[in-house]
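Thought: the user asked what Acyl carrier protein looks like in 3D. I have the sequence; next I should run the structure tool and report back without guessing.
Action: structure_tool
Action Input:
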Amino acid sequence: MVEPSVAEIRKIVCDTFLLDPASVEPDTPLEELGIDSKGRIRLLATLEVFYEVTIDLDERDRLTDIAAVARVLAEARDNKPGETAAS
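Observation:
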């Protein structure tokens, strides 16, 4: 399974929150981008749909910047149950 890149996640964050990609670096705190706790929940939901994973809501506090989002997403993908024939 290919790991999502920081650039790919950055694009998702920018698209989801209508941000200028030039203002978003991998280590820019999400709060500086105007993404609060509710925004992090929205981001979790977006990532779950886009990557077809389940991310525990408790993980939202770990979403501090793009690099941290990539780590949480990678862990969720690593823990994803096997695909079924109906998928």
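Thought: the tool returned a structure. Summarizing for the user.
Final Answer: Structure for Acyl carrier protein predicted. Helices lie at 6-17, 37-51, 66-78. Residues 6-78 form a domain with the Non-ribosomal Peptide Synthetase Peptidyl Carrier Protein; Chain A fold (CATH 1.10.1200.10).
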